[in-house]
Amino acid sequence: MSTTHGSIIFGYDVESTSDATSGFLQGAQQLHRKHDVPWTIYVTGQTLSARIEDVRAVMDEPLLSIGQHTFNHVLLKSIYMRPDDGKPIHGRSPNFFHQGGTLEQIQQEIHSMQNLIADLLEIECRGLTGPWGYYRGLVDRPDILQILSDNGIKWIRTNARDYRDCQPTPFSEQPFFYTDQGFSEILELGVQGYQDDFYWDRFDDRRFGDSYQDYLFAMLEKVADESLVWNVCSHDHGTVDVETFFQTKGTWIEELIIRAKDMGIRFISPPDLYAEMVAA
Description:
Layout: E1 7-14, H1 19-35, E2 39-43, H2 45-50, H3 52-56, E3 64-68, E4 79-81, E5 96-98, H4 103-121, E6 127-135, H5 142-150, E7 155-161, E8 176-178, E9 183-188, H6 197-203, H7 212-226, E10 229-235, H8 242-247, H9 249-262, E11 266-267, H10 270-279
Parallel strand pairs: 1-2, 1-10, 1-11, 2-3, 6-7, 7-9
Antiparallel strand pairs: 4-5, 8-9
């Protein structure tokens, strides 16, 4: 095995509030157990309320970390997607605007979700992913960072779009603490690359090949060569049962895991990376 470096985090948005939640969670648990690789879920309040038994069925998994995704999937910041390629996006053309919540809404969304996780899962939630993700994360929003800090959030995944509010997010966007904003206890993990296979299908110019797997393998080389952190993202969309999970998302996730192991890239959880970076 060649001597390489780099780290991969697996983080999944659990938001579908349907049978896809069960299929995804069961399939992901089996896959991550098989390869002994940590994983994280970011769950919305609507999904947790409706599919509580699905989450409880996997929550004692030692490899699993649990974060929140707001209660109602309210955006923390507005986004304005301008791909400039003439192709429709989210059913609109040529651009797409989605307004973020007010500070009052954001406070309510995050606080109520913290309480729901404490009540239903009996754990303290320290992680959050921002619905849709944002250009530069929250570097320009100390007011939102204050809300996160007040609610005990320590590690977040909000830096997840490029300068067009599209994707991929450059791999130069590596984890950082919000020290300049006055919140040195909050770690931004980011989402490097695409937020899922369907985003690659919409935005990629196929310069790495004709499949998402081609792109993923090319990025593994970059992560290893430059000793980068890669926060890999996916969603519980369309995985109506375990079989469907392994036929779809589970296929590229497993192949990514196998190739990364062969390259000597390590896998790490957000809490463990947080502890490492605090210590450093």
